[in-house]
């Protein structure tokens, strides 16, 4: 963030932002006229539900909308137009255009589900500022959504003091718990429990539609302090639920101490008779486990059919006088099961167990493959539904109910189940004698792992999880609980249409909505879809699940073993290598597909948290691809780049993603201590004010962070810092082909490199540089920089012209196919049809990429594999002499670059032909 003085101009602007954060009701007399159903006025933005189906269950929603430059001023408020009259929105700005108009706005909506499938967001004149749903007290805050009332304390170990519904306290003492085990492996261990203690509690947002409370702290007791947390509690008007975004930051530096459980727990007062206390769990297939604490079915004596029917349905049992007398008189002889556990310790296996009370045996109640991670505890007069999103995908997880047979039950949502193996965060191999850079580079040639002792630490990585708690006035029937479970696992999300995003010119000109093309490029579009579908299926086929793994994909396939190279150095987890995240997000913008959004969302959550350091010596750098997500010694900004996070932030206004992007603003300073090219001769800058940066992988990430920070805050100092870096790159002897120099961190200006310096890397433009530069030329036009970037785009794949331009012969460069999109960008910018034709030729040549994309798969059967596996190759060529087919192992690098380039060429070349 800028440290410039807070000027009067910024004060006036920010005052307008505060007003913008409040929705506006139309003035009496009809300042805003309700629109007829289906109409879309000029200046409105079209939005729709992800999946284009109105959800069956609704608990509030937040989303982002993009606006063309110059159309929406800071003084505007917004309404949502559906089939009924317009509804006021709680709104705030996410980003600004250079002219000071709104580029991205965020909107929150509670209350009833919006009516109609065709929805629009409409800018209107502001009229009033309704009060927020949270109010401050001496001890903390009270949230009143209209359906529930909650108390949140300023300090202590209770995150949520209580939640009431209809005057009844249904939840108390909501808190975080952490279990740690002490002792080396195969030795006697002991376990202790730490409670989350909030050091900071802030009302982050408070409006009439939504309130957000932010808590930061650590887990601790008298002996230990461990695992920092960041928790956000989201409350929506008219709703009876709270959404919990939970981030743990791993800060354990003692190998003999392991994390064996982490979760959110709360107490639930119970007053109903034991036979009216109901327990529910939901399977991933929608099946429901339903029992009572004191079950009345299956007894030797029938209590009465109405009694059993009521218990099964979750309604109040008849009065005791209506029970069969022999049962009514002997209720205390029927065991009461007060504890239940839903354990998902494998993605394809769960168990439900129950017991009467502590120190009694557990009974196996049910088994299955996948649980939805949603449960319920309560009575006909009220109870609580609770769930963990991506439950089985993020195993080992558990839903735990204890003491439900007493006046105060306890429910714990375990993100890591204490009854599974503890987290094993150790390094996956010893130093193997690789103690010098020479040895490490030799090993890199064998296993592709860039190893260095001490760099394979998990200290500082993070993991974010999403949880839900909902208060209900009665025990839900099967249909209602199924809908709640589906909502918790697939939260309804409003998204701006691809066409509206394209018209707003956001995320650069390198993509276009599918609707723009009709039948043009149909084979390319089918291949794009096939590649995505293949990876979506591979996630399931290869079981790429788990607490620390879910969201990522593997790097390269091993057709000899018919597995991905999960155990071979740098060929295992992908960690955003060559812009896998960008490929998914641009494909979502193009296609609008729900499954693409969900996969990109999961990847963004993972790569932004697990693959990046948030504490310690390497923060905020990311780790290169490896067997363990944090195992590689290449700690670089190209992995932690904001370029990969901006999509989810702007589309959903997610605060945690905003924090991750803020971490990167000064990330360049860490490169002073950890030069990315230290093993190939890159030296730290001699002047502590400077840092040595590559113009591609390093500066591309810096530019993404600074561009995003500038547009989010409209900060002129950040703009100047970015512009200085751009202009000083352009001023280098060979522009981008100079390769690297030392940058003044505070000003952004690079020193002049020697005149004969050339450093041309095939990796420079494939980690988001191409995409970010396409936006820089749009929002921060500078002739010198534009000329330098367009020269790089035009010459990279033209070796004779490049050699002539730099005055020395340039050898063969890699990734020709991926760089075809740079050629296409230069063609688009200069309206050069000949250059556009060359871009297509480079793309179809397949050099350094995929020459013959195909959709062929073969079925591999046991005993070659453990279970039948469908295997694909990335490329296939037919030998003209023998007629045999040669295949190349699938590599995510190549697929990602092929996908990004295909999307760019369609959008850019199509624009050239249209001009």
TrEMBL record:
Residues 135-485 form the PcRGLX/YetA-like central beta-sandwich domain. Residues 45-121 form the PcRGLX/YetA-like N-terminal RIFT barrel domain. It comes from the Bacteria. InterPro entries: PcRGLX/YetA-like, PcRGLX/YetA_2nd, PcRGLX/YetA_3rd, PcRGLX_1st, TAT_signal. Pfam families: PcRGLX_1st, PcRGLX_2nd, PcRGLX_3rd. Residues 491-910 form the PcRGLX/YetA-like C-terminal alpha/alpha toroid domain. This is Tat pathway signal sequence domain protein. It comes from Tatumella terrea.
